[in-house]
Write a structure and sequence with these properties.
Elements (H helix, E strand, L loop, with lengths): L15 E4 H19 L10 E4 L4 E4 L2 H8 L7 H13 L4 H20 L4 H22 L1 E2 L5 H16 L7 H16 L9 H4 E7 L7 E3 L1 E5 L13 E3 L2 E5 L19 H24 L4 E4 L5 H9 L3 E3 L4 H11 L16 E2 L2 E7 L2 E7 L7 E7 L2 H24 L1 E4 L3 H14 L5 H13 L1 H10 L3 H14 L6 E4 L4 E4 L6 E3 H19 L3 E4 L28 E4 L24
Parallel strand pairs: 2-21, 5-15, 9-10, 10-11
Antiparallel strand pairs: 1-20, 2-3, 4-16, 6-15, 7-14, 8-13, 9-12, 13-14, 16-19, 17-18
Helix pairs in contact: 1-4, 2-3, 3-4, 3-17, 4-14, 4-17, 5-13, 5-14, 5-17, 6-7, 6-12, 7-12, 13-14, 13-16, 15-16
Length: 585
């Protein structure tokens, strides 16, 4: 027929597209379902999640760990994984809070989307509210001097607060001082000392024994490496030893040359064999004559070298992990050598004491009294591998919190007090805003209440009664600004007086990240799913909105079964699948 224009195909067959208000609401629903998977882990009374992938089992209430293990599939909801991982990397704690805040902001502004308010208007006012909230947190922050006894107490309280919601909360009296000591040993060498916190503070896990048997080594400790015959005769204890670090293989091997050698006399062959022996002996002799008492190498140290060093009263260890070598170098002042030629005393390190000692069923090489004191090692004990692994994650979070407290030197009260005070401030500020912006800022303020509300719900308290009391207290006068949830009595309490403190930067970062994530979700006006990015079996299956749904179960311990090839999905309302098992489709 004349005048008809042929259809233009832009996307390949099987590509699924979704756009407009419906897809935006679908994205918000997907984010809400993800938040439902982690909201019960928040706070001191939060529950744990058990994630199984067919090969290993992980028990954790750390938001970033759970988000990573669930392998969220929904493209928009993956934004929540990013902000959770960013929060974990930057400040350590608050990984669950930032996800809940982002999703609650989306939930509170969802009615505006449904009513047809343009996303740009919503985003502009969300950014406005976020900026006001961050400035209010900075105004509320209480500064302290870390070099005073009061500052030391502040650091201990921030570490204890971070551990309150962890599996080792009942042992915070043991771990909080250890964490503060370890982090402060790095800070003593200036701000740069805190840059590589994870690399300079080693955590070694030894299953067995009681968790109270965990201890801190102010130096370096690492598990005894593989050793050859002759190791038993080595000296296992030194005072003020000289330490040589190598990246050299000390093992007798045939020297391989890409050449052919012709000999006319059997004695010439023997001279070649003797030369190979002489090469290794020259290397070993260089290690001894330089004055070293301890020789460590990233590469193997063979049986000949082991016996050679043992006969001369030296200690050696080969195949030392790279991280342990770096910590030894930092602590002792040694320089790693790539050759045994020209070793002089200036490249050797030292420490006050070295000893190989038994810890549980393992033997550890322990360096203490190091002159640089730029590293520490925490030895963790526990009854199961899952418990120790979760303890390690908890300690890492607490160390990051202490680090942030040392750098910012300011804290705010926890327990939902800051969120409620910022919400009150936003409501007051919103009264001066005209038009739709006032309602959106009010919605942002309402979203901040998710933190104290979820703390109450997870503790089994009536959140409506407690939040009503908190709103009244915060509205009365300035003295009520630090009132939050009392988890112990199901009431309200001045959380600052109670010693529930968090770094101010943590709260600022959480608020800014949550608002940014909400803005990213709101800015999406079309979702295109290319079948090439999906599993082959998923092509033509209808794309988004076509996978079956099942409700997530929650009990005393929520269990997410992510068995190989299986799937888990939340109830999104619009049928959007958002989770998949490890290796699943």
């Amino acid at each position: 027929m004349m005048g008809m224009r042929p259809g233009i195909i832009l996307l390949r067959e099987g590509t699924d597209t979704s756009q407009g208000k419906a897809q935006l609401i679908s994205n918000i629903n997907a984010c809400q379902a993800v938040a439902d998977a982690v909201r019960t882990t928040l706070g001191p009374r939060g529950m744990d999640k058990l994630v199984a992938d067919g090969r290993r089992v992980t028990i954790s209430n750390d938001g970033a760990t759970i988000m990573r293990l669930l392998e969220i599939e929904h493209p928009a909801a993956k934004t929540l994984v990013d902000i959770s991982m960013s929060q974990d990397a930057e400040v350590g704690d608050g990984t669950t809070s930032v996800v809940l805040l982002a999703v609650e902001i989306l939930r509170q502004i969802k009615p505006f989307v449904e009513e047809g308010v343009h996303p740009q208007i919503i985003m502009r006012n969300v950014r406005l509210a976020s900026g006001i909230a961050v400035r209010r947190v900075r105004d509320l922050a209480v500064s302290f001097d870390v070099d005073t006894p009061e500052g030391e107490a502040m650091l201990l309280k921030t570490a204890s607060t971070a551990l309150n919601s962890k599996l080792i909360a009942t042992h915070q009296d043991l771990f909080a001082p250890m964490i503060v000591d370890a982090v402060r040993s790095l800070a003593a060498h200036g701000p740069d000392g805190l840059d590589d916190l994870k690399g300079m503070i080693g955590i070694k896990k030894i299953p067995g024994g009681d968790v109270r048997q965990s201890f801190l080594v102010k130096g370096v400790a690492f598990k005894k490496t593989f050793s050859y015959a002759g190791f038993e005769q080595m000296t296992k204890k030194f005072t003020n030893p000289k330490i040589l670090l190598l990246n050299v293989e000390l093992e007798l091997k045939n020297e391989k040359e890409n050449a052919e050698v012709r000999i006319e006399d059997p004695d010439q062959y023997q001279s070649i064999v003797d030369a190979e022996w002489q090469v290794i002996y020259d290397k070993l002799d260089s290690c001894v004559t330089c004055g070293a008492n301890i020789v460590l190498s990233r590469l193997p140290i063979g049986d000949l070298a082991t016996q050679y060093f043992a006969d001369r009263g030296l200690f050696c260890a080969g195949r030392v992990e790279d991280g342990d070598m770096k910590r030894v170098a930092k602590a002792t002042g040694a320089t790693v050598q790539t050759s045994t030629n020209g070793i002089y005393e200036g490249v050797l390190g030292t420490c006050a004491d070295f000893e190989e000692k038994r810890v549980g069923d393992e033997r550890f090489n322990i360096f203490t009294g190091c002159p640089n004191s730029l590293t520490s090692t925490m030895i963790l004990r526990g009854g199961s591998e899952q418990f120790i692994a979760e303890s390690e994650r908890s300690i890492h979070d607490a160390m990051m919190v202490v680090k942030r407290s040392l750098t910012s030197r300011s804290v705010v009260a926890g327990g939902g007090a800051v969120e409620l005070e910022v919400a009150r401030h936003l409501r007051q500020h919103a009264l001066g805003i005209e038009g739709k912006g006032q309602l959106i800022v009010m919605a942002f303020a309402k979203a901040l209440e998710i933190v104290p509300r979820q703390l109450c719900d997870n503790a089994g308290f009536d959140s409506n009664d407690i939040l009503s009391a908190l709103r009244k207290k915060h509205a009365q006068d300035e003295d009520g600004k630090w009132y939050g949830v009392d988890i112990e009595r199901g009431d309200i309490i001045d959380t600052f007086e109670a010693g529930i403190w968090e770094p101010a930067d943590n709260k600022s970062f959480s608020l800014a990240s949550a608002a940014e994530a909400a803005g990213v979700i709101l800015s999406i006006d079309e979702t295109v799913i290319n079948p090439r990015s999906q599993d082959p079996g998923a092509v033509g299956a209808g794309g988004m909105g076509q996978k079956p749904m099942s409700n997530m179960m929650a009990g005393a311990m929520d269990t997410v079964n992510a068995q190989q090839g299986g799937s888990r999905s939340g109830n999104l309302g619009n049928g959007v699948s958002y989770l998949k098992g490890r290796g699943g489709g």
